[in-house]
Sequence to fold (764 residues):
Amino acid sequence: MDKHHDESFIRKYFSLDHKIIGLQYMFTSLVFLMGGFLLVQLMRWQLAFPGRPMPFIGRFFPDTMAPGGIMLPEFYNQLGAMHGTIMVFLGIVPLGVGFFGNYFLPLQIGARDMAFPRLNMMSYWIYLVGGLTMLSSFFMPGGAAQSGWTSYAPLSVTAPTGQTVWIIAMVLIITSSLFGAINFIVTTLNLRAPGLTWSRLPIFVWAQFITAILLLFSFPVLEAGAVLQLLDRVAGTSFFLPAGLVVDGTPLDRVGGGSPLLWQHLFWFLAHPEVYVLILPAMGIVAEIIANGTRKPLFGYKEIVGALCFLGVMSFLVWAHHMFLSGMRTSLSYFFMTTTMIISIPSVAILTCLLLSLKGGSIRFTPPMHFALAFLPLFGIGGLTGLPLGFTPTDIYLHDTYYVIGHFHYVVVTGSIIALFGGIYYWFPKMFGRVMNPFWSKVHFWFTILMMNGIFFPMFIQGMAGAQRRLYDPTAQLHNLVVQPSNVFMTYCAWGLFLAQIPFIINFFYSMFKGKRANENHWEATTLEWACPSPPLPHKNFEKAPTVYRGPYEYSVPGHKTDFYPQNVI
Amino acid sequence: MNNAHAQEVSATGIPSGKLGIWMFLASEVMLFGAFISSYVILRTGSPLFEIPAREMLGVPLATLNTFVLILSSVTMVLALDSVQKNNQKGLSRYLLLTVLLGFVFLGVKAYEYHHKWAEGITLSSGLFGSFYYTLTGLHALHVVGGIVFNLYILVNALRGKYSSNHHERVEYAGLYWHFVDLVWVILFPSLYLL
Fold:
């Protein structure tokens, strides 16, 4: 029956196999990541050389975007909003959850497929339609959404049509993520192999499970907010519009009475757990790679799991720390300040456990291990620079500056993306049965790390010097001129980061077809995904359904003949 | 189909479909929770929240509609009870009744909308109207979804696909239908009676 399915044309592209869907997610989200990255390249040109026409590509832009190759402020705003939206919702989440979760969660729990293959396929196609809808908004009259990825009302309500398309695309993307989340939770609950108890689950599975719960409970709230904003835009309601609003000199013909702050609450109630959706899969990947690369059990498995669960719960109680400047009551900001300080503890605990796991290990410096090791200090910088933003006194100073951008990008770029790269290198042999070239992997690694730091570290300095974010022309204000040379430097680094991805792309496709053959268990790892053939068998993964006899990280067990003791071996 | 069910593994002992529908309902709770709390926040906090007179809301009709929906939940339970006792005729009959009651609810709702719109309570007339149509409209969409789900079950029931040891889907449709009913039980007092 399965064979028949494989042969048909429709089943090849509309596959129900979690591995094919995972790969579809991977390629699509990598393309979106590159797209979002190219958008920010344009922004960086404007930031480094404001008012100068863009070289080479400038002439291809219509006059509504960049007449004579010189970017208009509206177009800059569109780039900013779309960069954020694409990177977060169409790039990192689908890569970290859609791809890694889809492909490796069923393998790591020894399942044949996800619990609901049809739902799984639907969630990919809805995501793709949502993503294309999002991109199409550039062609709307007035251009794409330009109210930032946060879409604060009332600016977003009075913005041109692109914002409506943004909302519709978001509703599609949210729906896709919800289907995925239901699938992941049920799969983890129900399809674990015999013997795979909760205390034997790999950290990666734990991280994906908690991520799915966060998605399930936080995304509907943004969906509600998006519907209300859509009605505000198209049906004349005023959920987020206060009375007496004047736009471009004319009073707005609305009853009013709504609250712009309500949107902020609904948005951040999603968007703070969303940060953990971005980072938890990355932490899971890093934990897998570190256990494998150090050849010893993870330090504090139970502590990591406990911290992950605690992070999940706490992430719903901190959202308003994004809104300290909205004029909220002091008692309320105290509450959110306290919860924010509390939530930093489990993150530090996880990072500490991963760091201590290195102690006494005989480390194998494989390419994935490079990325996992880089994750630790770089995510540490991202996390620690968040603390001043969690305290109201310092946040008031730093909130509207580049410091915030630096903090966020250290968490998500040098944190999540670095870990996701590591994951691709780590599981590449499993997916394609071949290994990526180690030399070019390391070239990719070193240049990427250097350039990323070159882009984001100066942002802290700029921010503390008072350079505001969201400015179209950074030279318009005198006090910003001091940091302008660093803007030029950062733009060069952004070009460097682009060039640094070329070895990755070539290495990826070359290795896919011509790389060195890998055996079933290339990294000599212990978890279940290495117990099936590389690549795993279509529609059933394992030749024989595995049974689990021990914990996930039994490396260097005294008395065992090899230094790894797979979960499925008696 | 039956074969696939027999092979289905379940580490928890609960069928995956049932877990799935519960997870879906959990997300629905968050969705309606966000809408209803937005309503509560603006109703208590906005200076411009005008509540129309009780007479304009048509409380008797809405009470009737509440009764209709609760009755449909009862018939849904009876449908499940019938299939558990392998009573095929009872299953189809009660499912049909549930679907019909769903249509009655929608019909009354449509009449109410028409009436209120004529009275000047529209989507853009003020915050109450906006919330009224958004909340009840979203709920009505869920009723439509429930009717479609129940019709699907009904068609399969008429083909004799369910029996006393294979009726998970009847139960899932029931869970969803009861949820839709429950949402209305919360919406009714908060929109009409408060």
User: Anything to note?
Assistant: Chain A touches chain B through 42 residues (CB under 8 Å). The two ends of chain A are 33 Å apart (CA to CA). Confidence is low (pLDDT under 50) at residues 1-5 of chain A.
